[in-house]
Amino acid sequence: MRRMRELTKLLNEASKSYYQNDTSVMSDMEYDKLYDELVLLEKETGTVLSDSPTVKVGYEVLSDLKKVRHESKMLSLDKTKDTAKLKDFLGENKGILSWKLDGLTIVLKYRGGELSQALTRGNGEVGEDITHNAKVFKNIPLKINYTGELVIRGEAVISFKDFEKINETLSENEKYKNPRNLCSGTVRQLNSEVAAKRNVCFEAFSLVSSVDTPDNDSKYDKMKWLSSLGFDTVESKIVTADDIEEMVDKFRDEINGNKFASDGLVLTYDSISLSDELGSTAKFPRDSMAFKWKDETAETILTDIIWNTSRTGLINPIAVFEPVELEGTTVNKASLHNLSIVENLELGIGDKITVYKANMIIPQVAENITRSGKFHVPEKCAVCGGETEIVKMRDGKALKCTNPNCEAQAVLEIVHYSSRDALNIEGLSEATVEKFVQEGFIKNYTDLYRLENFKDDIIELDGFGEKSYTKLINAVERSKNANLENFIYGLGINNVGLSNAKLLCKKFDYDFDQIINADIDSLVEISGFGEVIAHCVKKYFENEENVSLAKNALSFIILNEGSKDDTKLIFEGKTFVVTGDVFKYKNRKELQKEIEGFGGKVSSSVSKKTSYLINNDIFSESSKNKKAKEFGVKIITEDEFIEMIKK
Predict the structure, then answer these.
(1) What are phi and psi of 353, to 5 degrees?
(2) pLDDT, position 479
(3) Could you say which of 56, 87, 100, 593 is catalytic?
(4) Percentage of the chain surpassing pLDDT 90?
(5) Active-site residue flag, 100
């Protein structure tokens, strides 16, 4: 009984994170293993706890979207990993085998040929009304050639390709772990403009009810009819007990080419009348079953954990183990994603681990049998030797290199230095910087002033020529006349935005040497600085290499007299937090620059000291909105922020 209570708590917490908070705290494989253990214990004891996930369907809806009760209850599917069980399940009946897509289940209702309602699955009995978002899905017909009432079910999904593109536009601590989490977060937005930008697709998998549809008893024919109305339907095949095992293998062979993520297959009887006759149990329909491939696992020995520094400074852990065969290929590495996963697995070099391929594609560490916990969190970046720090991310804790001059971060550093609010070197794109770094033309931002040494090589590069080269050199020349605050901002000192750079210059009378040698007490005196920013500035200029690079760059630059910027610091002393999608600015970084340009500060988390939270979805139940309400922080939209500037 004690173990049953432990399992119930673990599984319910995992379901809550998955369905409600759009995050995954454990792998599907781990969830299934614990779920199966609980089922066996319930059979053994004859007891089922009231909050057991084996008798509950999903979680309660907790958002500001309108709640609507489903006309027919949406049940979970019983599942198996044994093809023989699928064969027994079919017997003499004909079935339909299709992908079990890993997205968010949606119910669509059409009246008079038009989409009238779209609901999420919710807890199976009550869903959330997301009609406003469904209307901007990439492939949902808004009008169909059928005027009777029609109710269908399907899966909202985002393709792997779109998932990668969208994640690239998000900051590191906002990136989503997988397409399913991104899709769930998108579909449940209050603002449909978010969904419109993210290419959400709808794949129909079931006709729930209709009038005057093709008069036969076949679900398969009903799905073909839906296709004729313009709906994309989940790929499916007619199967019998004679060919079910062969067909499962064919689906398995197609996994790597899938456009959307899937977590198995669904088998259902083709006969509608048979399904109606069988009905359902309290939890499962009797006419359908989910199939998950048995994850091919292999035991091996962990030989190393590589801490790989990215361009953004995040240090990503990678497990290295003795080579094993999985799903027909040899693998010896698997991403551990972040520090939290390393800690939860209690890894240590020499541990015996089991590995598998998630959805038969991505190598993952499934379990640590030894659990020595002897892993060492690096205190220094392997690339540059700079100090590391632990930062909070969407999916847990991560490790980051604090050295802005880290070679792994060179591209980002140079792009930042060249940005509009820094030295404003027009036309120097990130792609160009990457190319120049790869060719060895530049190693750090000071090398931008020596590009003329590589004139012939640059002109010969693909996409360049005499005209492009001249345009770039002219932009570099213009950047040599600069304000000190823009230069300091361009150095990329942690927590020092443009507004803080202005305050720093003002405090020390625009004297760079005074700024370099400033002590903590003097820095803390600056309005809005505090201990954290003061220590960031002090730490940066204590690094001799940082000072050397800065002075080297200044040898090319003529600082404008007094570096006076007449912009009114209307937000001086105000702290902003920005969350969610933005629409008036190109991205949240541009909005942050606007705030800092008027003397405000931007923080990553809401506290009692926060002045405003900017969120276009002001009714969201996000953690930041909840914190803002708790602390009495005013939540404003972009439009309200822009109006503040105008006034």
Answers:
(1) -125, 160
(2) 93
(3) 100
(4) 38
(5) yes
